[in-house]
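A quick aside before the break. I want you to see a complete sequence-to-structure record at least once, exactly as it would be stored in a machine-readable document. Don't worry about memorizing anything.
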Amino acid sequence: MKVGFFQFESLFGEVSRNLDIVEAHVASQACELLVLPELALLGYQFLSQEEVAGVAEEIPDGSTTRRLVELARARRMFIIAGLPERHGEHLYNSAILVGPAGFLGLYRKTHLFFEETLFFSPGNTGFQVWDIGPVKIGILICFDWVFPESARTLALKGAELLCHPSNLVLPHCPDAMVTRCLENRVFGLTANRIGRERRGGKPPLTFIGKSEIVAPSGEILYRASADQPEYVVRPIDIKEAQTKSLNPYNDLFGDRRPEWYQMR
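That is the input. The structure line, written in tokens, reads:
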């Protein structure tokens, strides 16, 4: 299966412009599953909850979701992208999954980071797995990587590929995702931003890039630069994530002893 990410610098509030850039790159190289960054098409450094409310969209009826559905249908591919969601009185930092058949589902970020806690409600979808045919996928959003329970829950539910839309500003995640893939024997695909945002007199946010594709063995199949836009597609063999056997005597999940993992 050919999977990929698009690492780029999105301009705050320029949704149509950012979508145009995504569409142009997708047209340049075939990809079966593409992951875009967290809040990929809008920007990240909000000034108030009111500002978020003004740009958040209902899912799946919002214009961004509809346009991504059109792109997925036209290119016969699956796309995961982050966007701010408005649902009733709540605002969520969400990611959608769309494909040739249309809208497939959404995940709401469980672990909010920094000022996100001022603007968004904690996600309430839980960690879900989607079987899209060639692969079973789970979605994490950015800071979820810090909590090993996130990746482990998805792996125990059958995920073979962890899709990880991100706006990373801390340096640790690219190396930590190697461990997440190794300890669960799954593929990982992190799509991060590059560039810098500074709005409303706040300290600037510099995104670290280094989007990557990691194998269940912990091998980094590709890691992007820290500061350059990159549209990268790589083939992966999903069978590598379908066995948890490490050797004739050890099975990663079979050897678990959950009865000793409880707080007493």
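Two observations worth writing down. The CA atoms of residues 106 and 201 lie 33 Å apart. The chain is about 20% helix and 30% strand. We'll return to this after the break.
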